[in-house]
Design goal:
The complex is a heterodimer.
Chain A: H1 4-22, H2 27-62, H3 67-85, H4 111-142, H5 148-163, H6 166-172, H7 184-219
Helix pairs in contact in A: 1-2, 2-3, 5-6, 5-7
Chain B: H1 3-26, E1 32-41, E2 47-56, E3 66-68, H2 70-87, H3 95-129, H4 131-137, H5 153-163, H6 175-205, E4 212-213, E5 216-217, H7 219-239, H8 247-290
Antiparallel strand pairs in B: 1-2, 1-3, 4-5
Classes of the chains: A mainly alpha, B mainly alpha.
Chain lengths: ~230, ~300
């Protein structure tokens, strides 16, 4: 029961989704399963929150290294959940002013909206922007045109970088129309159309085949990751 | 304290003093709002009034309905300090970065829980199990003829089984919802990936090998189509590991590697440009919204 039931659930759900795609009469089944999936995903977020709580409380109780940061994380988490679930600072919608809980939970001026706008969003954007430094640093250390392949990578990177900015126009805009295809912006277009699109397409086809193969393994019961590593 | 710590303490102290001096002198980072009274009537005729605050430019702060917003000003300062905290990782792991990291992880996890509750659990689970209750409280716009859907007890049971994972015993119970999750993902991905990433991609590669435009042969478009087809086939040849890459296959695979390298080079450039755009946006926030050193949108003209 502990192994057969999950297998049956996974196989049945998977084939229902496939049939729902091909059989119009079963579309509702697919929609219902997708709704259940979304509800379960929300529950998984609660599970993640519970796990965060558990792990940080353990770290604080044990006074292990970095327990102060764990305390800060815990307070941040609990404060956000409290303010968000209580809809602090949320106004009701104009068409239902007698329903104070009906307002959008992330509307401008709400506590959760403040947290998103001034805490989560700036730091997330900064984290992503910092990649510019790390990519530049890695490129400086690793980019060496030692052979044809490396030269192609380096050359394309330079041409596309220049071709997608005003620098490309500044450097090659003077070329006569007969040699216009050598301008960086046109070379970039050519590279994108003739090389990048086919390359990306071949990679995408490979990924699709991999996803189909791994999905089939799950649906046929050959791969059972939901049972855990020791019982699969 | 070692020398390095002393240097950093001095740097931080001077920075804080400079910020305090500038904030006191210019009011940098201040955010202003325009108060707008909102009037609404319920279906029973009861009147409700509350105040909404819209953004206003600092140059309009003399106007009667424009006032300093403490929460938004505090928000800009918090966002700026958090941004600097994240940037501090460029100098290596440090307490400021760890503090920023802890705050962001905590708030992000809490934010995800709130989003999951208000956008999924309330309308899709509670709204189906007890529509009258949800309509009276959180979703007054819900259709009045919405009936209780008892089938929604199934996802509720699956949710409870999933949360059982936190319990010290009976861990196998959470395998049922996990199996549902994985089975559904596998089924959905099998058809969607096969359609969008295989069938459609192959269909887009089947191009005319002799292009005619206005009744005339177009050599440039023909060459382009041939190049696209050759590049796709060559790249696929490289990924075909069940055949030895020798002879014609080897040459095709070699061409495929070249196409891949060009693809990676272009992807690298686009990634770098995207990140630099984000970096520029963060620097603009710091210099414009916080420090008031630049004013590209003329929001403080005349101050």
């Amino acid at each position: 029961m502990q192994r057969a039931a999950p297998l049956m659930i996974a196989v049945t759900t998977g084939f229902v989704m496939i049939l729902a795609y091909f059989v119009p009469a079963m579309n509702d089944w697919g929609d219902m399963a997708t709704n259940w999936f979304n509800i379960l995903a929300a529950a998984a977020l609660v599970l993640g929150g519970g796990n965060l709580l558990k792990m940080n409380l353990q770290q604080i109780a044990a006074r292990s290294a970095g327990w102060g940061y764990a305390a800060v994380m815990l307070v941040s988490f609990l404060a956000t959940v409290g303010l968000g679930l209580a809809k602090v600072g949320v106004h009701p919608p104009v068409n239902f002013p007698d329903a104070p809980w009906a307002g959008d939970y992330i509307q401008e001026g709400s506590a959760l909206g403040w947290i998103y706008e001034y805490l989560i969003n700036p730091v997330t954007a900064t984290m992503f922007s910092m990649l510019a430094f790390f990519v530049a640093s890695a490129a400086f250390r690793a980019f060496r045109a030692k052979n044809l392949e490396a030269g192609l990578l380096l050359g394309t990177a330079v041409i596309v970088l220049l071709g997608r900015t005003y620098a490309g126009v500044f450097l090659t805009g003077w070329l006569p129309e007969s040699l216009g295809w050598l301008r960086f912006n046109r070379l970039t277009e050519l590279i994108m159309d003739v090389c990048t699109t086919p390359g990306t397409r071949a990679i995408t086809i490979g990924i699709a085949l991999g996803v189909v193969a791994s999905s089939l393994k799950i649906l046929l019961g050959m791969d059972r990751p939901y049972l855990g590593s020791d019982e699969a | 304290m070692n020398r390095n710590t002393v240097v950093w303490v001095v740097v931080f102290g001077l920075g804080a003093a400079g910020l305090a001096w500038r904030a006191a002198g210019t009011g940098m980072g201040s955010q202003y709002v325009r108060a707008i009274e909102v009037h609404a009537a319920s279906k029973t005729g009861q009147q409700f009034t509350w105040t909404r605050y819209d953004d206003a430019f600092p140059k309009d702060r003399g106007q009667p309905d424009v006032a300093l917003s403490t929460p938004r000003t505090l928000g800009v300062w918090v966002a700026a300090l958090m941004t600097l905290g994240a940037f501090s990782f460029l100098f290596g792991d440090n307490p400021l970065f760890k503090l920023t990291q802890a705050i962001v992880i905590g708030t992000s996890a809490g934010f995800a829980v709130c989003v999951g509750f208000w956008s999924t659990v309330v309308p899709m689970l509670m709204g189906r199990l007890h529509p009258e209750f949800v309509r009276s409280w959180a979703a007054p716009g819900m259709p009045p003829d919405q009936q209780t859907e008892w089938i929604a007890l199934v996802p509720l049971a699956l949710c409870l089984m999933l949360l059982w994972r936190l319990a010290p015993w009976g861990g196998w119970i959470s395998r049922w919802p996990l199996a549902f999750f994985i089975g559904l993902t596998a089924g959905l991905r099998l058809v969607t990936f096969f359609k969008a990433d295989f069938v459609d991609q192959v269909a887009n590669t089947i191009l005319p090998l002799a292009v005619m435009a206005d009744g005339r042969f177009d050599p440039w478009a023909t060459l382009k189509n041939l190049a696209v087809l050759a590049a796709v086939l060559a790249t696929l040849a490289y990924f075909l590991f069940s055949v030895e890459h020798a002879g014609a296959m080897g040459r095709a695979a070699r061409l495929g590697i070249c196409v891949l390298m060009i693809t990676f080079g272009a992807s690298f450039s686009l990634t770098v440009m995207g990140r630099i755009s984000m970096l520029a946006a963060r620097l603009q926030f710091l210099f414009d919204d916080w420090l008031w050193l630049i004013d590209p949108l003329n929001r403080r003209t005349g101050l």
